[in-house]
Specification:
10 strands; alpha/beta
Length: 270
């Protein structure tokens, strides 16, 4: 598939997915949404793609959210049953935001504005690297739009209930320093360095055995909202999954026993 609103670069097991509508501040329209569904699944299903880096074109905007000019052209909601069917079948209106089936590591290089659906996009990542000029905010409040792509679900998990409710209710914009202080981002770097740092980290992660990383991420995601007993059972199940992978955890244990700090993974941990 040839993308018109995205760039998809695959180098050394790291994929960089760039939201590429800089003239519209990388806002997500219907075409970009369709292309994002394809691109995320393309990464998910590619055995040679280990880590995904997401970013926005330019040096001032990660993603400004939903393209409201495009949204204004959408038809009004009609029959409730038809809408409900389409809702449950949709992986998201602003990208791959309602899916939870990617257990490979995802890093966001937030290089500027991350507002509304742009913030929801950043929340898809496991690790967020922000440039010092990055800004975040649930700006849906201005236009009476609900957070329909993970805002009310993922933001409380990342920053906690109280801070998430403040940001969601007020729509207040926060800078990179405050985002770091509340745990919304993992690291702040100089302007124009977010992508460089994210790709550097992605390459480091891509050199690690991937099987355990994916099992652990799946355990965390599947355990959210469950009881402690259920979460421990899921974790144990994920431990068992390592016995079924081509690179068993016993290879790592044997390397440790032999004093080998850099084991050789025949299948690179897949």
């Amino acid at each position: 598939m040839d993308y018109k609103t995205l760039t998809y670069e695959h180098t050394d097991r790291v994929v960089t997915l760039t939201y590429n509508r800089p003239e519209q501040h990388n806002a997500i329209n219907q075409l970009m949404n369709e292309e994002l569904q394809h691109a995320w699944q393309r990464f998910r299903d590619d055995d040679d793609a280990f880590v995904l880096v997401i970013t926005g074109a330019g040096d001032s905007t990660f993603c400004a959210g939903w393209d409201l000019q495009d949204a204004a052209n959408l038809a009004e909601v009609g029959d409730w049953d038809a809408f409900r069917v389409s809702l449950y079948n949709s992986p998201g209106a602003c990208g791959y935001t309602r899916a939870v089936d990617i257990f490979k590591p995802v890093i966001a290089a937030v290089n500027g504005y991350a507002f509304a659906a742009g913030l929801e996009t950043a929340l898809l990542a496991d690790i967020r690297i922000a440039s010092e000029n990055a800004e975040f905010g649930a700006l849906e409040r201005r236009w009476n739009i609900v957070g329909g792509d993970g805002m009310t679900v993922r933001l409380p998990l990342v920053v906690g209930y109280a801070k998430a409710m403040e940001l969601i209710i007020t729509g207040r914009r926060i800078g990179a320093a405050e985002a770091l202080a509340i745990g919304l981002v993992n690291e702040v770097v100089p302007r124009e360095h977010a992508l460089v740092r994210a790709q550097e980290l992605a390459r480091e992660i891509a050199e690690l055995p991937q099987g355990a990383i994916r099992s652990d991420k799946e355990s965390v995601i599947r355990g959210i909202g469950r009881t402690l007993e259920e979460r421990l059972r899921i974790e144990a199940e994920m431990t068992l999954s390592m016995f079924m992978r081509r690179d068993s955890h016993t290879l790592g244990a044997a390397a440790f026993k032999a004093g080998n700090l850099k084991p050789t993974w025949p299948h690179h941990g897949l």
